[in-house]
């Protein structure tokens, strides 16, 4: 059974940092791209990043490039999203997903993702 479990969300002040974790089971990280998405209340789901361990690639949506960093610990079957310089507009539920990364250099799409976690909420206060 494939499972993706996010953790690390919480409440942080503007300018603060959080590191989210996505622990994968039932799959090998090298067989999938692992992406991060978020969805704020009343807004569409937004792709943030996509990573492969096999090819050592990372892609970022233009909205978060330079502030967010994704990385992986293959031994722990875990992918991270480090978020720095957080803003209230970053408040959302954050999801990790496994599949194929589709990006046009600005946006990261959801249509290639096969497996999804249930999300972890992030709230950034003023």
Order of helices and strands: EEEEEEEEEEE
Q: What's the mean pLDDT score?
A: 96
User: How far apart, in Å, are the first and last alpha carbons?
Assistant: 40 Å
Uncertain segments are none
* Overall body shape: globular
The main pleated sheet reads as: 7 strands, mixed
Please give the radius of gyration in angstroms. 13 Å
**Percent helix among the residues?**
under 10%
Number of helices: 0
Beta-strand residue fraction: over 45%
Number of strands: 11
Structure classification:
mainly beta
Task: Describe it.
The chain is mainly beta and 126 residues long. It is built from no helices and 11 strands. The strands form 2 sheets. Strands 2, 4, 5, 6, 9, 10 and 11 form a 7-stranded mixed sheet that branches. The protein has a 4-stranded antiparallel sheet with strand order 1-3-8-7, with no helix packed on it. A hairpin with a 6-residue loop joins strand 4 and strand 5.
